[in-house]
Structures are given as structure tokens and as C-alpha cells.
Amino acid sequence: MLQFPVHIPFVERLGLELHRFDGGQAELQLDLDTAHLNSWQVAHGGVLMTLLDVAMAHAARSLHSKEPGHGRGVVTVEMKTSFMRPAEGRLVAKGSLLHRSTTMAFCEGSVFDARQQLCAHATGTFKYLRALPTTRGRATKRLQRQDDAA
């Protein structure tokens, strides 16, 4: 298991694990817990969408993994998700960078269940940023690196 390059409290709270982060590829894994389930006792769609979003975002950032601080951050601009089947057991999310420009990344991601069946698929568009504008553009928030969180 790898350490996430940036501090994301929500991702840590969910228990996501980073297993690959290089060459336009990322892989996350999650052992489902009762807190991740919906009323049908399978993975909640929001958990699957978060896995897909984080896997694709890390795939987009992975080309900069050798740069200090792992390069620029990304924010999700658009995401389209399709759910194929209920997800149970240990989940694996794989994200791939399909194309990038100077400011944008176009990615896809898939979530597989413990039997390696495809449960959900997504495409997403991400914008590369060095800082996040806040309060009418007058201030910015820096990307919180993992080293900053300690």
C-alpha cells in the first residue's frame, strides 16, 4: 500500500487505500464496512462514485508523481457514472488518464468487486490547479500535501 500524496480527510475517513500511482494509472482498494452500505446492504452509490473520482484524479496527477509535492492538484469538472451491478466485498477501483492538455485531464475509471466483476464505470474531466481560488478570487488555498497534514 502507498501513502496518498495529498491529505484528503474524507478519503481517509472512508478507509480508501492507494495501491498504484504512476504512468497515468491509479488503483485504490476498499474493504466495505457497514458504514459504506445502502439500505440493500451493498455499497452505496456515493461510495462507488467517490472511489471512481479519487482513482481518476490520482491517475491524472500520477504523471507528476516524481515532481516535488507531486505537482499540481486537480479538481473534478465533470463526471458521468454508470452502475452495472451491486458491489460487495473488497472493491478495487482503477483509474486511467486517457488524454491531457496543459490545463485539463480526461480520465476513465472502473470499480470491480471481490469476484472481479465490473460494478461501475465512469468518465471524468479534471482541471489542473496550483491553488484553489476562494472568496471571489481574492484569496487562494494551497493544496494540502501529505507532509503538511502531520
Main pleated sheet: 6 strands, antiparallel
Q: What is the annotated CATH architecture?
A: Roll
Strand order of the largest sheet: 1-2-4-5-6-3
> What is the count of distinct domains?
1
Radius of gyration: 15 Å
Derived from helix and strand composition plus strand pairing, the structural class reads alpha+beta
What's the CATH C level? Alpha Beta
What is the percentage of strand-forming residues? 35-45%
Q: How confident overall, as mean pLDDT?
A: 90
DSSP helix count?
Answer: 3
The SSE order reads HEEHEEEEEEH
The helix fraction, in percent, is 10-25%
Remind me, CATH topology?
Answer: Thiol Ester Dehydrase, Chain A
CATH superfamily: Hotdog Thioesterase
Strand count: 8
First and last CA, distance: 19 Å
Shape type: globular
Low-confidence stretches: none
Question: In words, what does this structure look like?
Answer:
The protein has 150 residues and is of the alpha+beta class. The chain has a single domain (9-149), classed as Roll (Thiol Ester Dehydrase, Chain A), CATH 3.10.129.10. Helix content is 18%, strand content 43%. It has 3 helices and 8 strands, in the order αββαββββββα. It has helices at 9-14, 45-61, 146-149, and strands at residues 17-22, 25-31, 73-83, 90-100, 104-112, 118-129, 131-134, 139-142. The chain has a 6-stranded antiparallel beta sheet, covered by helices on one side. The chain has a two-stranded antiparallel sheet with strand order 7-8. The longest helix has 17 residues, at 45-61. The radius of gyration is 15 Å and the shape is globular. The relative contact order is 0.21.
